[in-house]
From TrEMBL:
Keyword Nucleus assigned: no
Source organism of the structure: Coffea canephora
Protein's recorded name: Pectinesterase
EC number, UniProt record: 3.1.1.11
Pathway assigned in UniProt: Glycan metabolism; pectin degradation; 2-dehydro-3-deoxy-D-gluconate from pectin: step 1/5
Length: 309
């Protein structure tokens, strides 16, 4: 069932996240999280003066493209819909997906900002492909690659269907998503994969009310991102797992991941919260519930003790 405009625009009211330097810190009580969020992220109409004028102009006259998984929508595929958007796009384009599977590899280039992909929260569509590092290279293996600014996603299942790496096959890493544009947001999305599920590559990003699963480094990259009320599920079965591999190279870089009122699920005490893949990786877990999937040591120095400083 296609989403109506009211649902689409109510979602857009809180996109993107813009917090000022005097923002009140997140509350310790999770029950207050949504009210804190809404207090700081006001509807577009009440904060136009604080936003990029190009963003304000883009939201004034959005275009809606409706797609169906059987190809009977305005375009046969998501890729076709994206190809219809002109380079250096200046208007918000909302791609509304009907339920079902969209089996394709999707890339949104840097010169196509202001794109939203949205599904019905009661019948979430699945974007799925089976790309691997062996075939495409690690960062190009993702089912969805976004390099443009002001991208939004809501109510989507984002999956890579490649087999679980077993340690014997080289290049078995397989991304569900790589997000490399600035000022992006994901609401109520599920990220499904094993090794390297989500490449939080670069730029400022918000993940709210999401689910992310994986095994090794399943959130990695050098983004500056906040995760609110997100479930991080460690898939059991590996001897060791790492939830994050944040890639800050120097102490001067203004990047890092913040997990606020999240939860880590799984079992077996096999997972580190993160490892120093790069020497200055920065990750903060605040007000987060952790299952016994987490190794009590918490962090791995990745066999580089000098990074412990």
């Amino acid at each position: 069932m296609a989403l109506n405009k009211a649902i689409l625009f109510s979602t857009l009211l809180f996109i993107p996240l813009v917090l000022s330097d005097d923002t009140v810190p997140a509350p310790a009580d999770k029950a207050q999280l949504n009210s804190w969020f809404e207090q700081n992220v006001q509807p577009l109409a009440s904060r136009k003066d604080t936003l990029d004028p190009a963003l304000v102009a883009a939201e004034a006259n959005p275009r809606i493209i409706k797609l169906k998984s059987d190809g009977s929508g305005e375009f046969k595929t998501i890729a076709d819909a994206i190809n219809s958007i002109p380079n250096d796009n200046t208007n918000r384009v909302i791609i509304s997906l009907g339920p079902g599977n969209y089996t394709e590899k999707i890339k949104i280039e840097r010169n196509k900002p202001f794109i939203t992909i949205i599904g019905d929260p009661n019948h979430m569509p699945t974007l799925v492909f089976g790309g691997t590092a062996a075939k495409y290279g690690t960062v190009e293996s993702a089912t969805l690659i976004v390099e443009s600014d002001y991208f939004n996603a809501a109510n989507l299942i984002l999956a890579n269907s490649a087999p679980r790496p077993n340690g014997d096959v080289k290049g078995a890493q397989a991304l569900a998503v790589r997000i490399g544009g600035d000022k992006a947001s994901f609401y109520n999305c599920k990220f499904l994969g094993f090794q390297d599920t989500l490449c939080d590559d670069k730029g400022k990003h918000l993940f709210k009310d999401c689910y992310i699963e994986g095994t090794v480094d399943f959130i990695f990259g050098n983004g500056k991102s906040i995760y609110l009320n997100v479930e991080l599920h460690v898939i059991p079965g590996d001897r060791q797992a790492w939830i994050t591999a944040q890639a800050r190279h120097t102490d001067a870089e203004d990047t890092g991941y913040s997990f606020v009122h999240c939860k880590v699920t799984g079992t077996g005490r096999t997972a580190y919260l993160g490892r120093t893949w790069m020497p200055y990786g920065k990750v903060v877990f605040a007000y987060t519930d952790m299952s016994d999937a987490v190794i009590p040591d918490g962090w791995s120095n990745n066999s580089h003790p000098e990074t412990e400083k």
